[in-house]
Every structure is written in structure tokens, then in C-alpha cells.
Design goal:
- This protein has 9 helices and 7 strands, in the order H-H-E-E-H-H-E-E-H-H-E-E-H-H-H-E.
- With about 280 residues, the chain is mostly helical.
Length: about 280
């Protein structure tokens, strides 16, 4: 009897440990600054050529149902090689010699280009979460894998988003720019981010997502929002009321009026299906 009780307690302990580990694995990482990347130039002394990425996006990103999708199947070997060369050129860039605006465009473009290359390397896949290359027993997807080397430092996609972009810029619009290759994610822009246009492009990306049903929608008087606003609530103000206020800032007039009477978010949604232009 005592032995059975001990077995039961041990089983409950391991179940609780497993549940906790799984919860941690799917939780959104917190922003944690990597000081190595804070240094920046005050005046522009060098340039970064994002034209190859711009050309790639123009060729393979298509808009359907008011949403940008990628024609992964159509990417030929020449353009894959061009994508590799572009990423290699960014990896060799002395980032600390870039201005803040240059750095912001640099990191967004690098994140998106590296993500797209990862999908191409494993295509066809139903979801980016099927690319399980992150370290750790309960890790999901590719975000924790060190797949880049910038200025001699090995980096993962998580490093770029959660240790560089989020803590340095503290701008919730970053969530509309970095693309996780999923239908539920904000659009992959059809143009490369540039230092001169990055602020305007972030605003445009925010408006596009907030006004699309996968970002914010109201069904039968109930406010439905993307899980991005739940995972990263702290970046959007920390409360549902502040998330709603943020959404109103970028909402079209009709949606903004309807959001005026909203006080809570009733449900959160997200579609992890690959943002593939071909079914």
C-alpha cells in the first residue's frame, strides 16, 4: 500500500515536471538584451545592399486574399544561390558601424531571409514547426538553432528577435515585420526593409495585420485577436485594454469605431500552416 502510494507520488511529480517543461517550450521567449549588439554609428559611413533580397521578394511573394504568400515551389537554383550570397553578405557586415535605422532594417531582413531559406531547405513541409532543429528535448521548430554567424557570433532566429530586436528597439511593430512563415503571422513584406523606409514600412505592416481577420476581428460582438497579442502582451502594453488601444491606433475607421466599445479579448487564434502560395 505504501509502495503504491510512493509510485503514485513519483508519477505525479514527473507528470508535473513534464507539463511544466512542455509549457515552457511553447511559451513565447522574453526579451533579454544581448549587450554585444547595442553599439551603433551616429552617422552613416557604410551601406548595406538589400537589393538582392528586394528582387527575391518581388519575384516570389504573391498576394492572395489580402495576404502575402511565398511561392516556395517556384524558387530555382539560381535564386537559392543568390539568397545564400545575400545572407552571407549580411553575416560579414560590421553591424556596429551601421546607424540605428540601418541596423533595424538589417536585422529584420536577415531574420526573414534566414527563415525563408530554412523553409526552402526542408520544403515541402506543412508547417515551420515541423522543422525541429532547435536544441532541447521539448523544443519545437527551428528558432533556437544557431543557423547564422554574424560578425563572428553564432546566432539563432530567437537571438535576433528576442535578444536584439525586441530589447533594443522596444517597438511592438517589430512583431509585424519579422515573419515566421505561417498563415497566422503578419505578412512577409514584398519589398526589403531599407533604413530610409523602415519606419513607414513598420506602420504599413501594422495596419495590414490589424485590419486583416487573422490579426483582429469581431464576430457576433466578440473580439477575436491573434495569439501574437497574447504571447507578447507585454510588448503591446501588458493588458487587454492596452492591446485594444494599440489595435485602434492602426485600425481602419470602421474597425476603430467598433473597437471603441470593446473592453476585453474573448478569444485568441493562430494558424501555423505554412504561408505557401501552393496548396
Amino acid at each position: 500500500m505504501v509502495f503504491n502510494r510512493i509510485i503514485h507520488v513519483v508519477a505525479l511529480f514527473w507528470l508535473a515536471l513534464l507539463t511544466s517543461a512542455l509549457a515552457a517550450a511553447v511559451a513565447a521567449p522574453k526579451a533579454k538584451l544581448w549587450p554585444r549588439w547595442e553599439t551603433h554609428a551616429t552617422t552613416r559611413t557604410i551601406t548595406v545592399d538589400h537589393d538582392p533580397w528586394d528582387a527575391f521578394l518581388a519575384r516570389y511573394v504573391v498576394t492572395r486574399n489580402n495576404m502575402n504568400l511565398v511561392d516556395y515551389h517556384a524558387v530555382d537554383e539560381a535564386d537559392r544561390a543568390a539568397l545564400d550570397r545575400y545572407i552571407a553578405s549580411l553575416e560579414a557586415t560590421p553591424v556596429d558601424r551601421l546607424t540605428r535605422e540601418q541596423q533595424l532594417a538589417f536585422w529584420i531582413n536577415l531574420y526573414n531571409a534566414a527563415t525563408l531559406r530554412l523553409v526552402l531547405e526542408h520544403y515541402p513541409v506543412h508547417s515551420i514547426r515541423d522543422i525541429d532543429i532547435s536544441p532541447g528535448l521539448f523544443s519545437d521548430g527551428p528558432w533556437g538553432a544557431k543557423i547564422l554567424t554574424v560578425a563572428g557570433e553564432k546566432l539563432s532566429l530567437d537571438d535576433i528577435e528576442h535578444r536584439i530586436l525586441r530589447p533594443i528597439w522596444r517597438d511592438p511593430r517589430i512583431h509585424y515585420a519579422v515573419n515566421c512563415a505561417s498563415v497566422g503571422c503578419p505578412d512577409l513584406a514584398r519589398r526589403a526593409y531599407q533604413a530610409e523606409t523602415v519606419d513607414a514600412m513598420l506602420d504599413a505592416a501594422a495596419r495590414a495585420y490589424v485590419n486583416h481577420p487573422r490579426g483582429i476581428r469581431i464576430d457576433n460582438g466578440r473580439l477575436i485577436a491573434s495569439k501574437i497579442y497574447k504571447w507578447y502582451a507585454a510588448d503591446f502594453g501588458g493588458t487587454e485594454a492596452r492591446v485594444i488601444a494599440h489595435a485602434r491606433q492602426y485600425a481602419d475607421v470602421a474597425l476603430a469605431v467598433r473597437l471603441t466599445d470593446m473592453t476585453r479579448i474573448h478569444d485568441y487564434i493562430y494558424d501555423w500552416s505554412l504561408n505557401d502560395a501552393r496548396p
